[in-house]
Amino acid sequence: MVPDTVLGAIYLSIIDMVLLSMLLLVIGAILSKIFPLFSKIEKFINKK
Amino acid sequence: MEFLLKLFNDMIQTTGLVHLTWGNVFLILVGIFLIYLAIVKKYEPFLLLPIGFGSIVANIPATDLLEPGGLIHFFYLGVEKVIYPPLIFLGVGAMTDFGPMIANPSLMILGAFAHIGIFIALIGAKLLGFSIFEAGAIGIIGGADGPMAIYVTQKLAPHLMAQISVAAYSYMALMPLIQPPIMRLLTTKEERQIMMKQMRPVSKTEKIAFPIVITVLIDLLLPPIAPLITMLMLGNLLKESGVVDRLAKTVSGEFMNVITILLGVSIGSTMKADTFLTIKTLEIVTLGLIAFMTGTAGGVLGAKFLNKLSGGKINPLVGSAGIASVPIAARVSHSVAIKENPYNFLIMHAMGPNLAGVFGTAIAGGIMLVLLGVH
């Protein structure tokens, strides 16, 4: 549990900001690396 | 005669007139002002009009509308039981094209930069003596996402619902006034004129895969926000699938309108003089404004940083859109850009960070709930 102090609020803010950035980067990485493959698969299926 | 006078007196006692306080009168005037902003200034009329009307009704004593069993009390159960926010997200999902975010995922990080305001307000609230739970709920105003603010507040500090929801929705409506001066202050004329290159086309398969992948990913990692993300993505899947147009139209149309009316009136009705007119309200409203301003600044500075990294290919004005509030913030970015260069159509580029901001607020709120041990 985060302590109910100013220091606790600072910890909470830093951890939240770091995890938020990491998660958005993960989603961004999935969108940029994996999603274009869906388009390629779609094109491949359409050709067949 | 005495009987008639007593009867008349008893009748007067049942009216709201004898119970009306100066606080009630003030908040009725505030309600009228919100309706004025909605009708005359066209500031988010879909929100401000029912909120303003709710404020008027809440401050007319003796109507029993807000008492248990009263009509608006039943409306408010949707806020209290956290039913409206996911349903609003269902409609938002069905109205939203996530294509700009899928096409340009490198801008997703702006959804984090623009949320720095949440944490500044959180620390500020703690410094002012609020509990860590109250501070978390106040901070989320900076996410500029009304349903998310209601969701987190109901979990962390339900007694502050009135102040936080009114601040969140009012500032969202006032974003076209709050953001542009900060955006201009932090950017040069040359930066504001940067034209971004056209985005790649996004296939139908990608758009259908998106809601499924995101639901699985976020629901697995952050269960406390599953109701919101699940509904947002379900609405989007209804839209993108292309086979249930009738359902997509319903949830993004009349269904969403009904929820908006109920939510708006419920929020407005929380502005009761006896609980709303306090120093705490003033502190929360001020912290909310600081959160919006610093979030805007964080987004613009983050976009400036990305612009430098990309060799001048990113217009820093898209950064402020990372604050969420779809599509208001993206429209603000576009309107500031077009004043510098009438051929610079920034709206679609700003929609990417704007949509990332929706996820940013939800994720920030979800992580906060997990870290504070609230589910």
TrEMBL record, chain A:
Keywords carried by this UniProt record: Membrane, Transmembrane, Transmembrane helix
Keyword Transmembrane: yes
Ranges annotated as spanning the membrane: 6-31
Keyword Membrane annotated: yes
Protein name in UniProt: Uncharacterized protein
Lineage of the species this protein comes from: Bacteria, Bacillati, Bacillota, Clostridia, Thermoanaerobacterales
From TrEMBL, chain B:
Subcellular location: Cell membrane
Record keyword Protein biosynthesis present: no
Taxonomic superkingdom: Bacteria
InterPro entries: OadB_MmdB
A biological-process GO annotation: sodium ion transport
Keywords of this entry: Cell membrane, Ion transport, Membrane, Sodium, Sodium transport, Translocase, Transmembrane, Transmembrane helix, Transport
Subcellular location, principal: membrane
Protein's name according to its UniProt entry: Sodium ion-translocating decarboxylase, beta subunit
